[in-house]
Hints:
Elements: E1 6-11, H1 15-26, H2 28-35, E2 39-45, H3 66-71, E3 77-80, H4 86-97, E4 101-104, H5 107-124, E5 128-129, H6 141-147, E6 153-159, H7 162-174, H8 178-187, H9 196-199, H10 202-216, E7 226-227, H11 235-244, E8 246-257, E9 260-271, E10 283-290, E11 294-301, H12 305-324, E12 346-355, H13 361-371, E13 376-381, E14 389-395, E15 398-399, H14 400-411, E16 416-425
Parallel strand pairs: 1-2, 1-3, 3-4, 4-5, 7-9
Antiparallel strand pairs: 6-8, 6-10, 8-9, 10-11, 12-14, 12-15, 12-16, 13-14
Bound molecules: NADP nicotinamide-adenine-dinucleotide phosphate and L-homoserine (HSE).
NADP nicotinamide-adenine-dinucleotide phosphate binds at residues 11-17, 45-48, 51, 81-83, 87, 105-106, 132, 136, 189-190, 192-193, 303-304, 308.
Amino acid sequence: MKEGKIGVAILGLGTVGIGVVDILSKNRAMIFxxxxxxxEVKKVLVRNPNKKRDIxxxxxxxxxxxxxILQDQDIDIVVELIGGLEVAKEYxxxxxxxxxxxxxxxxxxxxHFGAELFDLARKNEVPxxxxxxxxxxIPLITPLTESLVGxxxxxxxxxxNGTTNYILTKxxxxxxxxxxxxxxxxxxxxxxxxxxxxxDGLDAAHKLTVLVALAFDTHIQLSDLHCEGIRKIDTMDICxxxxxxxxxxxxxxxxxxxxxxxxxxxxxxxxxxxPLASVNNVFNAVFVESEEVGxxxxxxxxxxxxxxxxxxxxxxxSAARVLSGSKTLLPRKxxxxxxxxxxxxxxxxxxxxxVEDRPGVLGEIANxxxxxxxxxxxxxxxxxxxxxxxxxxxxxxxxxxxxCQGLKTIGGLSCVKDVANVIxxxxxx
Length: 429
Ligand code: NAP
Ligand code: HSE
């Protein structure tokens, strides 16, 4: 059982590694308050320590090699964010053999060597966590391994490659070419070091092996999996699909059938009213069907520095809690607080009044709204020659208390028969 600080080493300080170091240092106190574990990044390992990076670390933080990290008794968790196969595998194996907990975001290494690595982690009785390996920032692995552990899953179907989803979205909405959008996805840090892995479906195939293992307790060989990418998709196909009522998405599908487990990655026409059809840009989503919970969709950012680092940090904390033992697994502490009174909240509102249809009514109402600081974005008044007609307006962002005050006065006007409805408008972001 480990007491006090938990030491962390980060292998790889690229897109994701920098995000992890940043979150761990910025949110260290908050993480401690929430989880009871005090995490300290002690060392980082990179290929070229002299490279200019988006983060400032003291030179002593850079380990000269993996051995320095393995020998350091103050390092408990090794986080592999190098990517690729052979070196990453070698480093994970050495870390597990040195009885360090390992966190990785590397789906390629799991797809090729997962079974062997999990055996090794079991043998050495140390955690091996991989939340960021599928779906970037979406908590996906933890729900599948913990929350849904009592479910018989019948299928998993997902958009699990951010780069290709970004490309297909931009081709659909902006009619831009495949090559131009791929460049953009690379510069945003979504694409793999070699983006052919994204474009040809291999990255999604790697991730599908992880999902299938969790959903059906079965390791399938990558070579058994059907894999097609998006290179052949033309904007013409996207337009025809849309006319037919479909969106084109790169789907990864794992299904339990009478013949066995189906595992395939390919472009797919999805009905426009299916929840997966509105998953756009770098967002990913996995649609799970199980005998017990039914249909469930997990949705979020599938790639990028901070979304991915968020998942890695979650794993580091989980591993640290296991290493620190039972105390940190006690329920979390909360402080007592109060919610803001609703009259002090702001928002945009739809208001329907029933009013007399005569000149001057709108002016009287607008005057009272103005005095209460309520600014109106749009007004609709329809119908004539009845004793009362609906007058509908939508406000800009206003204080709810001010609106209530104004409507109370408005309700007392002789021309207003009823303040019939006030409904909050949620515009998203
Ligand atoms: P990246 O930006 O290419 O960074 C890789 C880092 O690894 C670099 O700092 C590099 O060092 C270091 N490195 C490479 N070879 C090394 C070696 N032999 N020894 C020590 N360090 C070495 O990669 P990334 O995008 O952060 O991805 C990292 C992992 O996260 C990959 O497995 C990827 O699939 C996964 N992932 C990425 C995302 C994403 O949005 N980017 C999302 C989910 C999962 P130098 O800086 O010195 O070259
Ligand atoms: N290249 C991957 C993607 C990164 O685009 O989804 C996240 O695994």
